[in-house]
């Protein structure tokens, strides 16, 4: 395999859905041994492209060359294996209740013709594989008990091994391309580095990795070259080292992002009225957390995994039973143990949870139905739900929050991540919250929508105070007036004003947390 | 974080028809991303809003079952003009299945809320037996007996609901156990005999009085369908039950009383099944140890078949009514053609499997198309 022959070359790839060009003449060339980033907003065509490679979609035009040979499109489902591709998707495709070894050998067991299967041998092979990739995972552990990053690495090792096994069976080295589709979305930032070392080890022998992501920093860190899609077209391909973050963003969204549109950082919270006083909140890892939330403030919470920084928003909303402590709002003091989401809502709180798919929304209901969950009673007048009024209000709301397309009757699951999240923000804004509780508000959200969500959060400060728990320090830097740092369940310090920088937050979270985090 | 649901209990029930593929799916097929990002959302929405309205397959899908029903009626009417195409046969079909309509309508309440109720058949039998025993053997006033039967239904529903929700046991298991338990009790208290001679007043109210030649029980069933339709389409309660059925965590975090709603749904299905028992006691003037047990499978078949029509993908009252009558029209027609009674089981069982398969296929296709 020479370095001049591209491993995979896609030219003029086109895919039309109901008259709309999801892919419109996309070119993508992947060289042997490189990590190639694929960037683009939701709806730019990334997932369609990948689904063509996996044989799920039949393209309407374009050619595919693998290692210099023409491969006719469409690919059959499963054909990607004989070409030497494999895929690791966001959901990883692991069985949580089975052991690491069992998960690793799933494919082999499925195709094995043997009557008896030697688990001991399998276990030894698993250990040997992990050693080869320098990954430290216990083959006997149950997958649901291992760390998220170990799960991701397990899925990756499994995929790479399946490519190699496929290549061996074909009697020749295939393309050996691993497609990682947003592998880091559910990972804590501080564990991403381990995943990246694994990716580098994989590419060291000439295999390539197509790395699909939203996260510019990660793409800049791990990739050699990067291709950006916009509106179904190739916006450009560049050598990662030679392009700046701002240039990348411009390629992705086709316009320049405003630099920190909010200069609210300077605003001090001293002297403002206290909207919510939290005293001695303890729950899971959290111990005796006390703080005041001021009127119009955006308060960020950050910490390492296990520090409990994200638990606060759920505890305050009564979403995770078992919390103790008190909250005071005005004259009233309320026992946190007595809180339910319903009660919290009546106190003027709103929670947009981090797990949009499982806790935030129902994909199979319409956009309007999802957004109206909290305000149904308002539309029950004259003994009937006013569907027309509901639809009109939703349409107005989604226009205001720039959810596209602004069609209340479309299924929620058919919207892109960014639009889904904007809709959820709108859902809760309807309840006129006094305290807005957010957990990872821009997870799996494209760059443009990210900025809009930041604007929404900043824009709501006239009417509500916000608590935002996030593992994206850059986001906290952009939107927060004050950031609370959690270390091992304790709220140890606050950063305010100009001190709120990505680096400072990271330092504080890590610097004081060198000792292992005690089990909750 | 989810306090009331056991691990086995999630993602069951109503999802059977909706093939919960928690969709990260058709992101790319979505909005027509316009060239200039500054264009307004309204402009961007225009084309796909039209696309959403024009979706002929959607409307056809919603009307497929009613149209098939009409076709079946036409075919049998031509084949058997003398026996099938008569007003007496129509009245008989409409009235004889009123109990099934009522019981199935009751069943869709927990199905919408994400729980199964397999005890409805036994509750029908228990209710009818309680009426027969109290009225015939103990000489109670018929209406007092009816009230006791309905209360018994509520108690069964409460037990089902509490065990399912508060202990977090799968409703499938709880109600399966309850079903068998009640069937045993029925055999016991009836002494394995059919008790006849229920007060004529009840019989009059249920079948003797007729309107346009159709016994009253048909109208009771239709009134009940109207009530359910109102609740599901025009009240917050209906919308809440739907959300609870699709995702309990979302419902809880949106401030809904998930446990209360689920218990309420199981109480409703049991109460309605008890009402069905009242209708059976009134229809036949008697009750036996196996009364009502044969309703369970037809009810599930009709509920799932009904969820493929009118509002495809959702259990809905009018779809349910149409499904019941579609099934019974087919069975009656085939029996009049001379086929034996085994036709019934084949038809109901087959319909259940086909209905669930169809909704699954529709679902998959939509996912792939990006709707």
From TrEMBL, chain A:
Any matching Pfam family: ABC_tran
Top-level division of the source organism's lineage: Bacteria
Domain ABC transporter: 8-256, 269-513
EC number annotated for this UniProt entry: 3.6.3.17
Gene Ontology MF terms: ATP binding; ATP hydrolysis activity
Keywords: ATP-binding, Hydrolase, Nucleotide-binding, Repeat, Transport
Statement: the UniProt record of this protein carries the keyword Acetylation: no
Protein name from the UniProt record: Monosaccharide-transporting ATPase
Source species: Pseudonocardia dioxanivorans (strain ATCC 55486 / DSM 44775 / JCM 13855 / CB1190)
Biological classification of the source: Bacteria, Bacillati, Actinomycetota, Actinomycetes, Pseudonocardiales
From TrEMBL, chain B:
Region: Disordered, residue numbers: 1-55
Keyword Cell membrane: yes
GO molecular function: transmembrane transporter activity
Localization in the cell: Cell membrane
Membrane topology reported for the UniProt record: Multi-pass membrane protein
GO terms under cellular component: plasma membrane
UniProt entry tagged with the keyword Transmembrane: yes
InterPro entries, A to Z: ABC_transp_permease (IPR001851)
Record's compositionally biased regions (Low complexity): 35-45
Signal peptide (residue range): none
Keywords for this protein: Cell membrane, Membrane, Transmembrane, Transmembrane helix
Skewed-composition ranges (Basic and acidic residues): 1-24
TM spans (from-to): 60-79, 91-109, 116-134, 140-159, 166-189, 218-238, 259-281, 287-306, 318-339, 345-362
Protein name according to UniProt: ABC-type transporter, integral membrane subunit
């Amino acid at each position: 395999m020479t370095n001049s022959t591209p491993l995979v070359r896609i030219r003029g790839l086109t895919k039309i859905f109901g008259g709309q060009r999801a892919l419109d003449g996309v070119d993508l060339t992947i060289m042997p041994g490189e990590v190639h980033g694929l960037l683009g907003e939701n709806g730019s065509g990334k997932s369609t492209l990948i689904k063509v490679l996996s044989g799920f979609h039949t393209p309407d035009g374009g050619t595919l060359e693998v290692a210099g040979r023409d491969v006719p499109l469409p690919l059959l489902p499963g054909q990607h294996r004989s070409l030497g591709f494999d895929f690791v998707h966001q959901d990883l495709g692991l069985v949580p209740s089975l052991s690491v070894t069992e998960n690793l050998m799933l494919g082999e067991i499925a195709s094995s013709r043997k009557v008896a299967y030697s688990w001991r041998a399998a276990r030894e092979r698993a250990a040997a594989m992990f050693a080869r990739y320098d990954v430290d995972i216990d083959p006997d552990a149950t997958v649901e008990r291992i760390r998220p990053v170990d799960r991701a690495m397990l899925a990756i090792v499994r995929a790479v091994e399946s490519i190699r096994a496929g290549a061996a069976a074909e009697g020749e080295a295939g393309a050996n391309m691993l497609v990682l589709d947003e592998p880091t979305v559910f990972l804590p930032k501080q564990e991403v580095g381990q995943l990246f070392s694994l990716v580098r080890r994989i590419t060291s022998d000439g295999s390539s990795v197509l790395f699909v992501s939203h996260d510019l920093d990660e793409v800049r860190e791990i990739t050699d070259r990067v291709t950006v899609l916009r509106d179904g077209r190739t916006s450009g391909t560049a050598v990662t080292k030679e392009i700046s973050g701002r240039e990348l963003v411009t390629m992705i969204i086709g316009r320049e992002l405003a630099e920190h549109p909010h200069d609210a950082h300077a605003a001090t919270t001293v002297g403002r009225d206290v909207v919510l006083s939290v005293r001695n909140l303890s729950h899971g890892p959290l111990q005796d957390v006390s703080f005041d939330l001021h009127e119009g403030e955006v308060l960020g919470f950050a910490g390492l995994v296990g520090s409990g920084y994200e638990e606060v928003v759920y505890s305050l909303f009564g979403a995770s039973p078992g919390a103790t402590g008190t909250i005071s709002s005005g004259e009233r003091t309320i026992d946190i143990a007595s809180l339910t989401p319903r009660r919290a809502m009546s106190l003027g709180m709103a929670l947009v949870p981090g797990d949009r798919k499982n806790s935030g929304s129902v994909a199979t209901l319409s956009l309007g139905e999802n957004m109206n969950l909290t305000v149904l009673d308002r539309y029950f007048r004259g003994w009937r739900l006013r569907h027309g009024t509901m639809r009109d209000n939703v349409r107005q709301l989604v226009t205001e929050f720039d959810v596209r397309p602004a069609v209340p009757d479309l299924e929620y699951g058919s919207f892109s991540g960014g639009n889904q999240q904007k809709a959820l923000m709108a859902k809760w804004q309807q309840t006129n919250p006094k305290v807005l509780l957010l957990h990872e508000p821009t997870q799996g959200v494209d760059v443009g929508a990210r900025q809009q969500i930041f604007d929404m959060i900043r824009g709501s400060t006239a009417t509500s105070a916000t608590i935002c728990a996030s593992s994206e320090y850059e986001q906290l830097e952009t939107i927060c007036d004050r950031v609370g740092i959690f270390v091992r369940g304790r709220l140890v310090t606050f950063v305010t004003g100009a001190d709120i920088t990505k680096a400072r937050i990271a330092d504080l979270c890590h610097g004081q947390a060198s000792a292992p985090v005690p089990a909750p | 974080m989810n306090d009331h649901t056991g691990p086995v209990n999630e993602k069951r029930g109503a999802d059977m028809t909706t093939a919960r593929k928690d969709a990260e799916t058709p992101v790319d097929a979505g909005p027509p991303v316009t060239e200039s990002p500054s264009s307004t959302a309204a402009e961007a929405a225009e084309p796909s809003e039209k696309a959403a309205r024009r979706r002929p397959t959607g409307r056809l899908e919603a009307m497929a079952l009613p149209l098939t029903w009409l076709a079946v009626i036409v075919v049998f009417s031509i084949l058997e003009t003398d026996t099938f195409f008569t007003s007496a046969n129509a009245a008989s079909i409409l009235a004889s299945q009123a109990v099934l309509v009522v019981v199935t309508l009751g069943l869709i309440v927990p199905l919408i809320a994400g729980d199964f109720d397999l005890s409805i058949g036994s509750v029908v039998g228990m209710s009818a037996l309680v009426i027969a025993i109290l009225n015939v053997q103990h000489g109670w006033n018929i209406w007092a007996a009816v009230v006791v039967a309905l209360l018994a239904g509520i108690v069964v529903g409460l037990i089902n609901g509490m065990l399912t929700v508060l202990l977090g046991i799968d409703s499938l298991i709880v109600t399966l156990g309850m079903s068998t338990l009640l069937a045993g009790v029925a055999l016991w208290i009836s002494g394995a005999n059919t008790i006849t001679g229920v007060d004529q007043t009840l019989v009059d109210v249920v079948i003797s009085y007729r309107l346009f030649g159709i016994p009253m029980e048909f109208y009771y069933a239709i009134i009940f369908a109207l009530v359910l339709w109102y609740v599901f389409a025009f009240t917050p309660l209906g919308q809440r039950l739907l959300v609870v059925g699709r995702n309990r965590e979302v419902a809880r975090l949106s401030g809904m009383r998930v446990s209360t709603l689920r218990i309420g749904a199981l109480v409703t299905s049991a109460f309605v099944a008890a009402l069905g028992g009242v209708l059976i006691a009134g229809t036949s003037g008697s009750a036996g140890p196996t009364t009502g047990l044969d309703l369970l499978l037809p009810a599930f078949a009709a509920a799932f078949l009904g969820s493929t029509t009118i509002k495809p993908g959702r259990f809905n009252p009018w779809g349910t009514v149409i499904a019941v009558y579609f099934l019974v029209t087919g069975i009656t027609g085939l029996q009049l053609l001379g086929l034996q009674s085994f036709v019934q089981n084949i038809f109901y069982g087959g319909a259940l499997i086909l209905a669930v398969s169809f909704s699954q296929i529709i679902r998959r296709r939509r996912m792939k198309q990006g709707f």
